[in-house]
Each structure stands twice: as structure tokens, then as C-alpha cells.
Specification:
Helices cover 29% and strands 29% of the residues. With 392 residues, it is an alpha/beta fold. Bound molecules: S-adenosyl-L-homocysteine.
Length: 392
């Protein structure tokens, strides 16, 4: 163990990391030749300027986030045993919450495993690796999965563009079994998800509780599910007794899956392939309204530099969406951009709704479900924001 390299912080740096924050940035580190020579993802000890080691992490000189902390002890062995301990803990938390094995099993730093997300769909898991450090741990990870839940299919969906920041290429492969269209069970609804070709891991578990909330409101009402993807909100609403549901998305493959899911649930929905902004303007011009409107767009603030244009886009969406909410209706506005915080997002939504001169009451402020735990010292892990308004 004496062979493990130590990364030293600059003088006065590291207060947050010592207190348990999981990221250390490149400007906080003594980036000497020995550090630069370490292969991306190497497991290291981390020490302050005084030489005192305060934890283990993995290191990538190429990345702006140079160290991601893994443990608060020196020389922690990072291998199958370490991963098994984290998987078991994460599993215990999910099993305390959900009756069936359909959930996000690992939410990166929130579950103590930076660079890794795993979604579980019964005996199939989809893993997504975003860092060089985690990429080096693929074999122990597969062994740890075998020892914990022994899934029939393990799909590596390693095709997120952010991998480039870590010097990693993109690929999708089945490490075990095969990638197919599978069934997802959520809130007593059965959906389909395309694990190899779909977005992210093929399904967005993060909106589960918000889908249930909106489905309960939808009974007997008309619903517009804008940015429906594969119908997460819309089909739940239809199953809960909505009188009419329109799912709106620009992706034909996503709508095709939604259509099959609706049929499998005996739910009747209409599917419209269109650009949401254009369609909302058309509906408003035609004076068509819905009792419940859901708008769960892709991230409008992809990078910090996009904050102002992104914030403006959220305000515009709030304005256009509230314009098609029927009197005494409900509106959900969501953002999955971690680069805009709840306060700013809520302010933009309020400003957008105000443009339609409607009185609005905020009745729910929510984030992702509990299978997306937030690291208490990394607010970025709380990326999802969902606001529900009652409009007069
Ligand atoms: N609400 C969904 C997730 C939405 S993901 C759920 O509950 O699962 C965002 C969706 O927005 C994607 O399906 C994408 O195809 C769609 N999208 C992106 N830009 C769009 C646009 N301009 N108009 C319509 N849909 C768009």
C-alpha cells in the first residue's frame, strides 16, 4: 500500500474536502510533474499542504474536477469489496422505499460512488460511467453487481458527451446478457423502455413521485404532456382516469414507445410529434386549453455560460404553457439543469406565468424521487426541480 501516490493540496486549500465535500478542483492541487504523470483515474491518497492525508479518491489531471473523493481514510482499497459495500447500502435504502426492483440503484456521489449511475429494471441494470476513475473500476463493478443483485443483463450505456471532459470515448455494450426493450413498473403503471437506443439510461425514474402527483390531479380532466418522451406523465394520467391526454414530443421513436406503452395499459392517449414552443403557440392561437399541463423539457442550461439564455427559455415556456391552461387548471414546470438553482428557476416561472395575468398558487415544490439521493455537500446532485401551480 505504500506504493499509492499522494496528491497534495495547495496551502490553505481543502477545507471543504476535509469536511466531506466530494470534489477537488485542479486549481486547488499542487499539480507537479509526478501528479501530471499519473494515469487518468488512478486511485490516490489526498493530503493537505501539511502532508496530513485525509482521504482516498481517484485523480485525473486532465479533468477540471481533478479529484473525486471515495473515502475519508488513507489507503482505502478500492475494489470489489468497496463497491459491494456501497451497492448493498444503496440497495437497502431502495428496498426500504420500493416494493418492486425498479429504481435508480446508484446516483453517483449521492450514493458515494462518483462517476457512476445505475438504473435497475428488474433483472436488468443499465450502468452509466462518466469518469476515468470509474471506467478503471468496470471489472470490479461487474463482480460487485454479481455478488449483490446478480442481474441477468448488464448494459453499459457509456455514451454521454460529458465523458470527453475525462478523456473517455463513447460506447454502448452489453457486459452481460443483452440490451432490449424492457418493461418498467412505476406507480402501478407498466411502461416500455428502450435501453440501448433511448435517452439517458432509457427511462427517467427521477419524475416518479411527480408523475403520481399529477396523475392524481388528472382524474376527470384533460391533460397536455409536453416533452412527453415515452409518456411517463401522460400514460399515468390516462390510467388514473384523465378524460383526454395529449403527449407532445419532437422524437418519433420516443412517441412510438409511448404509443405501445399506452396500449399495454389500455390507456387512450393522442400522440403529437411537434416542437413544443410552436405547438403551444398554435394551441393558444386556436384557443385550445387543457385542465392540466405538464412541461418537462430537456435541460435549457447545459453549461454555466448558458444560464441567461436558458433562464429566458424557462420564462418563455412558463408563459406559453400557462396560456393553454384552462380556468382553474394545474401546471407543472420542471427543469433538469443542475446549472440553474431552484430560486432562479422559480423566479423565471413566476415571471412567465405573470405575463398571462393569471393568479397562480404554488402548490408543490419538488425534486427527484428518493432513489436520487443528494450529497449534502454537493448541491449539484439536486438537479431536478418541479413546480406545480394552481391557476385561476
Ligand atoms: N417528461 C419525460 C421526460 C422528458 S425528456 C418523462 O417523464 O419521461 C425531454 C424530452 O423533450 C425528450 O423526449 C425530447 O425528445 C423532447 N424534446 C426536446 N426538444 C424538444 C422540442 N423542441 N419540442 C418537443 N420535444 C422536445
Amino acid at each position: 500500500m505504500t506504493s499509492r501516490k499522494t496528491i497534495k493540496l495547495k496551502p490553505k486549500e481543502g477545507r471543504r474536502a476535509r469536511a466531506g465535500a466530494p470534489w477537488i478542483f485542479s486549481n486547488e492541487i499542487q499539480m507537479d510533474a509526478a501528479a501530471k504523470a499519473l494515469a487518468p483515474g488512478t486511485v490516490v491518497n489526498v493530503a493537505g499542504d501539511d502532508g496530513q492525508i485525509f482521504g482516498s479518491g481517484y485523480f485525473n489531471a486532465k479533468s477540471l474536477i481533478s479529484v473525486r473523493m471515495l473515502d475519508r481514510a488513507a489507503d482505502t482499497i478500492i475494489g470489489t469489496g468497496f463497491l459491494v459495500r456501497h451497492l448493498q447500502r444503496a440497495l437497502a435504502v431502495r428496498e426500504a422505499i420500493y416494493a418492486r426492483p425498479f429504481y435508480r440503484l446508484i446516483h453517483a456521489e449521492g450514493d458515494g460512488l462518483p462517476g457512476l449511475t445505475i438504473d435497475r429494471f428488474g433483472d436488468t441494470v443499465v450502468a452509466q460511467i462518466s469518469t476515468a476513475g470509474m471506467e478503471l473500476l468496470i471489472d470490479p463493478l461487474l463482480a460487485a453487481l454479481e455478488k449483490t443483485i446478480a442481474p441477468a443483463n448488464v448494459i453499459l450505456r457509456n455514451d454521454t458527451p460529458s465523458r470527453a471532459l475525462e478523456g473517455l470515448g463513447e460506447y454502448v455494450r452489453a457486459a452481460k446478457g443483452e440490451a432490449t426493450r424492457i418493461a418498467v413498473e412505476e406507480n402501478s403503471v407498466r411502461y416500455f423502455a428502450d435501453l440501448a437506443g433511448g435517452q439517458k439510461t432509457g427511462w427517467y425514474y427521477d419524475q416518479r413521485d411527480n408523475r403520481a402527483f399529477m396523475a392524481a390531479l388528472a382524474k376527470g380532466r384533460s391533460v397536455l404532456d409536453a416533452y412527453s418522451y415515452t409518456g411517463g406523465f401522460g400514460i399515468a394520467a390516462a390510467k388514473a382516469g384523465a378524460k383526454e391526454v395529449v403527449c407532445l414530443d419532437s422524437s418519433a421513436p420516443a412517441l412510438a414507445i409511448a404509443e405501445d406503452s399506452a396500449a399495454a395499459n389500455g390507456a387512450s392517449c393522442k400522440f403529437v410529434k411537434a416542437d413544443v414552443f410552436e405547438e403551444l403557440e398554435r394551441l393558444a392561437a386556436a384557443k385550445e386549453t387543457f385542465d392540466v399541463v405538464i412541461a418537462d423539457p430537456p435541460p435549457f442550461v447545459r453549461a454555466r455560460k448558458d444560464l441567461e439564455p436558458g433562464a429566458k427559455a424557462y420564462r418563455k415556456l412558463a408563459r406559453l404553457a400557462s396560456a393553454v391552461v384552462a380556468p382553474n387548471g394545474f401546471l407543472l414546470l420542471a427543469s433538469c439543469s443542475h446549472n440553474i438553482d431552484m430560486e432562479r428557476f422559480a423566479a423565471e416561472c413566476a415571471a412567465g406565468i405573470a405575463r398571462t395575468n393569471r393568479r397562480a398558487a404554488l402548490i408543490r415544490q419538488a425534486g427527484a424521487g428518493p432513489d436520487h439521493p443528494v450529497h449534502p455537500m454537493l448541491p449539484e446532485t439536486a438537479y431536478l426541480k418541479a413546480l406545480v401551480y394552481a391557476l385561476d
